[in-house]
Structure formats: structure tokens, C-alpha cells
Design brief:
This protein is an all-beta fold. It contains one helix and 21 strands. It has an eight-stranded antiparallel β-barrel with strand order 13-14-15-16-18-19-20-21. It has a seven-stranded antiparallel beta sheet with strand order 2-3-12-11-10-9-8, with no helix packed on it. It is globular.
């Protein structure tokens, strides 16, 4: 485990810093930009593993306009079940990477497309919990016909076990402009159905009728946001319910 000081950081300016951005092939979104934002990475400092110009993430504690690349972040934590984990509970003004919060994130295939969750200390029910997706090579259009299916993984309060991850298949009908499907964890205690969604002409996906069942609690009216990448080979997105505990980030590849 490496800790590097956050002193002398060189930031290369990037013009956009919004919760939903699409420029230079980038697309991503976050459920709470107060705590987490996504954009093209713009942070580098000598001796670090970070690279400018990749899919990036920023957190409140270091400034939501300072984006570090996910590829660089993978060198700091652990990896299991396809998920990278950085367990650095936030306890005050950070002086090193040991004080940035708790991250769980995954890569879609081998693309520079990522999705995951963050909170300041990783505790269940934490109101700072934010889910997100962030990726390069975002598509700008989709076919007007045809179908595709995607094997997808979802992250919701990941506890380090494979059984806590949600899995499922999402179906894209480009002719009908819809994306549908259900994700569920190993014991079916967490289930999410995307409900009615629209595949938009810019290759984004939106919806507002997702349903979730979490330990017997039904939640409704989840807002779906997703994006196709790499010629519809990859897909990443999130479902935003009322209550940060229920939000889900997901991603997957075309079958």
C-alpha cells in the first residue's frame, strides 16, 4: 500500500467541472457532486502514477475540480472480485492518500470506463455515499435498429465479498430506443430493475421509473443515467434513488 503526500500537486487546467459532462470523448455522472465529481483527469505530480487525459474522479476533501485518473488510483488499494478498494477513511484535512475516503470501483472490460461508490468512512447508511460512472471514448450516436445484450455488474454497499455485488443482463433495443433489465445480488436481498428508459440519440440513457428492493424495503422512481462507449461495446451508468444508501452504479460489456 503506497501513501503519497498531496503536496506540490501540479494541476493541468481542464475547462469543465460538472456532474454530467461530454467532451473530448468523455462522459460521466455522479449522484452528488458536492462530494464526488467526474471528468477528464487533470492532476499530475512528479513520482506519482497519475496521468492527465484519462477518465478521472475528484473528491471534496482534495477539491472537486482536481481530477485524478482511475488507472492511477488502482495502484493504491486492493483488488478482489473485479473491484478495486481504497480504504482511507476521511478524518480531517488530508495530508496524504491515507485520508481520502473509502472507494470501491470497477473497470468495464479493459476500457478506460469506470463505475463505483465513495463515502467518507465506508459505513452503512452514510449520507455522503455517492455513486458514479466515468469514461473515455463515449459514443455520440447509436444505431436506429438492432439489439444488444450486456452482462453487467452493479455496486451497492460493497462489503468485499462477491455475493454483495449485483449481477444481471441489460437489453438494448436500438429500434425501440430502450434499455431494460434487472440486477440482483447473490441472495436476492438487493434487486434493481431499470424500469422504463430511453436510449437518446447522443448514446446516453435516461429514465425515472427504476425500482429497487433492498432487504425488504421497496424504493421507487429511481433516476437512471447511463452511457454507451466504444461503439456500443461498453455500457456504464447509475440508478439514483431517494436515499444515498440505495443508489447503484453499474457497468458491463456487450455479449
Amino acid at each position: 500500500m503506497k501513501y503519497l503526500p498531496l503536496i506540490g500537486v501540479v494541476t493541468v487546467a481542464v475547462s469543465m467541472a460538472t456532474s454530467m459532462t461530454q467532451a473530448a470523448g468523455f462522459a460521466g455522472e455522479t449522484t452528488n457532486a458536492t462530494y464526488v465529481n467526474v471528468d477528464v483527469s487533470n492532476v499530475y505530480y512528479p513520482g506519482s502514477p497519475h496521468t492527465v487525459g484519462l477518465a478521472g474522479i475528484s473528491v471534496e476533501v482534495t477539491g472537486v475540480d482536481d481530477y485524478v485518473d482511475f488507472a492511477g488510483l488502482t495502484t493504491y488499494g486492493s483488488y478482489a472480485n473485479g473491484v478495486y478498494s481504497l480504504n482511507f477513511p476521511y478524518t480531517g484535512a488530508p495530508a496524504s492518500h491515507s485520508d481520502l475516503g473509502v472507494f470501491h470501483f470497477a473497470e468495464v472490460g479493459s476500457s478506460d470506463v469506470w463505475f463505483g461508490e465513495w463515502s467518507n468512512d465506508g459505513s452503512l447508511g452514510n449520507t455522503t455515499r455517492t455513486v458514479y460512472y466515468s469514461g473515455m471514448n463515449a459514443d455520440s450516436s447509436v444505431p436506429s435498429s438492432g439489439t444488444a445484450s450486456y452482462t453487467v455488474v452493479g455496486i451497492n454497499n460493497y462489503d468485499g465479498s462477491a455475493g454483495s455485488l449485483l449481477n444481471g443482463t441489460l437489453s438494448a433495443d436500438f429500434g425501440a430506443a430502450t434499455l431494460s433489465g434487472t440486477l440482483y445480488n447473490a441472495d436476492f436481498s438487493s434487486i434493481v430493475n431499470l424500469g422504463s428508459t430511453t436510449i437518446n440519440s447522443d448514446a446516453s440513457v435516461t429514465g425515472s421509473s427504476a425500482l429497487g428492493l433492498f432487504s425488504g424495503t421497496l424504493v421507487t422512481s429511481g433516476a437512471v443515467s447511463a452511457q454507451f462507449y466504444n461503439g456500443q461495446t461498453d455500457l456504464a451508468g447509475l440508478v439514483d434513488f431517494a436515499g444515498a444508501n440505495y443508489d447503484v452504479a453499474f457497468g458491463g460489456t456487450k455479449n
